[in-house]
Design brief:
This is Fatty acid desaturase 3. This protein is mainly alpha-helical. It has helices at about 20-25, 55-60, 70-75, 80-85, 105-120, 130-155, 155-180, 190-205, 210-220, 240-250, 260-265, 270-285, 290-335, 355-360, 370-375, 380-385, 395-410, 415-440, and strands spanning about 20, 30, 35-40, 40-45, 90-95, 365, 415. It folds into 2 domains: about 1-100, Flavocytochrome B2, Chain A, domain 1 (Roll); about 105-440, no CATH class. A hairpin with a 2-residue loop joins strand 3 (about 35-40) and strand 4 (about 40-45). The longest helix has about 45 residues, at about 290-335.
Length: about 450
Amino acid sequence: VGEPGPREGSAQPGAPLPTFCWEQIRAHDQPGDKWLVIERRVYDISRWAQRHPGGSRLIGHHGAEDATDAFRAFHQDLNFVRKFLQPLLIGELAPEEPSQDGPLNAQLVEDFRALHQAAEDMKLFDASPTFFAFLLGHILAMEVLAWLLIYLLGPGWVPSALAAFILAISQAQSWCLQHDLGHASIFKKSRWNHVAQKFVMGQLKGFSAHWWNFRHFQHHAKPNIFHKDPDVTVAPVFLLGESSVEYGKKKRRYLPYNQQHLYFFLIGPPLLTLVNFEVENLAYMLVCMQWADLLWAASFYARFFLSYLPFYGVPGVLLFFVAVRVLESHWFVWITQMNHIPKEIGHEKHRDWASSQLAATCNVEPSLFTNWFSGHLNFQIEHHLFPRMPRHNYSRVAPLVKSLCAKHGLSYEVKPFLTALVDIVRSLKKSGDIWLDAYLHQ
């Protein structure tokens, strides 16, 4: 990031801070002109945003907003990060101004921050080394087991199918482990998390850690918000939430959206990881010149193809690789979308942190199998409220989150596993029907 230094317009040490009202701050939410508020202090991030480690889009999505809870959710060492904010400080909120702009529930914000502090006091942000060592160990064991199956039994259909299935599970669990590392929820030092994520994402999966973080942090900052969450900005291939009505009213019909719940099975689960992620990931590394990530990814492909080339030859190993990616892709789509697609999807509502996360997420009933199979993403509510929390502590903070929701009348939705999967298709069909109705009757 580089050392922060004095900048034109920043508040001078020892000088009284200028005060601003929200009406003034709201005017600074344009490209190249971004202000935000953290802990009642006003920062001009217009030029510095390009240097933000999480990317300019992530921090820019909070333009002209109170970003206090997002700031605390994403950063481990707050005092260290505040040093980089100091040169960007231009003032503070006027004493008579509320901490949050708009008709937000101030008591909910206060209660959530108290809950966050309670979780810290309970040491729920401390990771278990044994838990994550076991996760890495069983991933590596599956990689070795798959190779041994082909080595000992030969490249027949049955051993190959079984090996592909085991590798797909290993790849799925690697997604979960790199996800934990990306959120800095394993090691106490951010750098250790970043280095370990490069290994898991690059050597074990063949993808770029920077690419994943660029997408995923935006998703966490503004879940289910068009043009801010890449996971739901999927039009015109699929229409979700409010886009269904918009496309219908404008008479847009690039695809038969009333049948999107059917063609989803053809181009969604089978191809996301194999095609979309592979192309987008490679383009990102080349355009953004992430050469270290490119070398890590190359090491995965070298290991994979050199390991299985002697058994299958070039055509066979390519087919084997495609089989693993397709199986993995099914897991990725169903597991990651069962908590989000059926929820509210639309344009920016400028809600507080807790309300925005709860509106976009739901949980799936826990069990030993579901927790392992989904990488604890069945606790999606807790994960979104506390993205840095190690996943093995979600069940401990869940009762506190339920109490907060009950107190403020917020929905804390928990579904059976199969219901959550079926709801993905139901929500796609509902959005398609809404589009058709608006298309025919507007």
